[in-house]
Amino acid sequence: MKKLTLDTFLSSATDYEMSQYQLLGTLKNYSEQLHKNKVYPALSELIEMEELLDGIIKEKTKLEIIFPQLTPNTSLAKEKDFPDDSAIANDVNQVFDFVNWAHPQILEIITEGKAIYSFVKQNIQIEEIGLIPLYKNEGYFFITNQKNDSEQIYRYEIPFISLDTNSSSLMRVSLIQSLWKNDVEQESLSSIKLNLIKEYDTLPNPATFNMVCDLDFPFEETILPIAKRRLAKKLAV
Asked: What value, to the nearest 5°, has the Cα angle with vertex 153 and ends 168 and 206?
């Protein structure tokens, strides 16, 4: 899927209609991903771009700092010997017009993505398996992949500093086991945890969680990343 970038907005200075066509095509692709309940990376990419555009709209001077070659009559432009040409001002205004036109359309798709995110988040429950130690930066979490009826066991690790930032971006996860759901139903989660302790002795008393979600949504693009964020928030408390 083609990613939304600043180039689409900057190119509107030379070809407004083509930029519109490209943007609408890219937004259609993002929307199609969300209609398939695939939240990531579509939602995070759109939010990142929307925040950038919002900053441009609210403070035009940011554009002057980042793109002095598009900005007439600025000291920075003069230092770099850019021509003082009214055509440049027209190009800049056209870019701003394009940003103002595109911004609400991006927001509309983001709203749709956030609704899916919120729905999935509400349907993920976190259960503690056994006693949870004071040190929670490393451990395991179990989560069911409904698409293939498997129980995925992940090891997670969060740098200590990220617990203060409430962020899951620094959480590292690795799949260490994948069990058939039927096999898991015949064995308690506590016994599976004990097996992990025996097999991976670097964590003698690991924090272990079971992520319960019965939604049949895309696992890699939706269930797993949202579950990861839910767990990071819980660990930060």
From this structure: 75
- DSSP string of 117-185? HHHHHHT-EEEE-SPPPS--SEEEEEEEETTTTEEEEEEEE--TTHHHHT-STT-EEEEEEEEEHHHHH
Question: Looking at the DSSP assignment, which residues form a beta bridge with residue 154?
Answer: 141, 175
Q: Degrees (nearest 5) of the Cα angle 82, 85, 90?
A: 115
At residue 112, the 3 state secondary structure works out as helix
- Check: CB of residue 138 under 8 Å from CB of residue 173: no
| CA angle (225, 231, 234) in 5-degree steps | 145
pTM (predicted TM-score) = 0.81
CA distances from 21 to 7, 57, 136, 180 (A): 13, 21, 49, 46
* Most confident listed range (50-59, 69-78, 158-167, 220-229): 220-229
Cβ neighbours around 235 below 10 Å, total: 21
Residue whose entry in the numeric block shows the structure tokens 């021509």: 83
DSSP at 70? G
Q: Is the pLDDT reported for residue 27 higher than 50?
A: yes
